[in-house]
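Board notes (copied after class):
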Amino acid sequence: MPKLPKYVIIGIIVFAFLIASISVVLLFQIKESITSNPPVASLPTPIPTIPQSIEEIIKSIGKFPSGEKVAQVGEETISGEDLNFLLTTFYTQDLASPGATLQTFKKKVLDHAIRDSVILQSGQKQNLVTLTADIFNNQGKDYHARQKQVRDLTEIFQKNQEKISGSSVSIWFKNQNLSSLPPSET
């Protein structure tokens, strides 16, 4: 076997020493991290129980008082009963979420009721619909017929909005001496 030069042997020794030093440092860091941050046993997160029916959901979070006047939108009075219908018809998925409370949905449901009322009243002003007590401003209104009318009017408004078209023209004048104009003309 041929004899290796001294610089190769010294290189191998330095390399082995470097590897050993890095290993010691890494082992020390691992030991330090284990002793300073011992592993903590974690408990499994409990799975929330979801009520079986809409009635149970409403019972668990509460509901709007039925006879209470909540808002006045133009000629229509929005009652708690109106909001309860919207809550149970459109927001049941949200109601089933963990931590759901009536307070969480008050603004969302009220905004929905206001929007529907504005759509219906705008439709009447434009002679697109005649509002009767069956769907408007009545404690015993037919909510399903009301929602159908709101959907139909929304569709009509969207179609009319698509027909509106036009263009704009901007005219700019180059006036270098604005300070000579009186303040009322600037």
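Comment from the instructor: Residues 54-161 form one domain. The chain has six helices and two strands.
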